[in-house]
Amino acid sequence: MKYFEYVTCILLILLSIVLMSSKVQNLENENQKPEHQENENILFSFGVIADCQYKGEGDTNARKYSQSSTKLKEAVEHFNSKDLSFTMHLGDFIDTDWDNFDVVGPIYNELKSTHYHLLGNHDFSVPNEKKSEVYKKLNMPSEYYDFTVKDWRFIVLNGNDISFYAYPEGSEKYNFAATYYEQNELTSPKYNGGIGETQKEWLKGVLEEASKLNEKVLIFNHFPIYPAGSHNLWNDTEIIQIIESYPCVKAYMNGHNHAGNYGIINKRHYLTFKSMVDTEQNSYAIVEVYQNRLEVKGYGREKDRLLPLFE
Question: Hey, what's the torsion of the CAs at 255, 260, 263, 267, to 10 degrees?
């Protein structure tokens, strides 16, 4: 009997040691930071704003146009407190009227970082004689362009290339858009647009160059191309097919759909940022670029996201 009690006591002591060791190990694991947080540095970061869409009046329940100048100033002040490589506005800087560029433009130009624009459909809600001057008003080098930061290539597309609103009614390009729309039997809203053949060939050329230089690529546009939806670029599937041919493309980012969206195809991220203009709450983001991922830090209505970079 004494022998049995002795063995039982020894077993209980051993079990206690095992349980204590397990608890200590769990505590160590809980306090240990993920490896990427300890050992990796941010390569660079950039700011993103979608659809400021300012005008001085006409606010609705959903869209607070007149508040966008204040929201933009708030975002600019926040961005200026960070070490950003650049900031990108994803189109629809104004809602209507040429003079509104002069209200929000000076605010955006207070950014300490290099700052870029791309063209949205509402940016062309100006007099006919001004439509061809919009990209110059936004200090863009051309209607579509690219630039590099470290080993990343950023491609800025013009999704209004084929459209009704970017050209005076009755002009050659307007008539081309009408023919294109009819021949392709489109039902997409006419406030969307498409990318023409010349720009598609330019895109392929830039992607070829980036591939040869072993650069990672991120594409910006105003219009989404994935997931499918009523806001999408008219020829979204054509652009997806081009992207699918180049493994260097890691992500595609856009605005236009004010609710935001996200999808992934073959390890490529398609991210729609929420609009600044909607609701009284602000919306913008900072994207941190790491060797193996993009981290989106959302502010206001924009949410945080972690986007792994796949080989």
Answer: 60
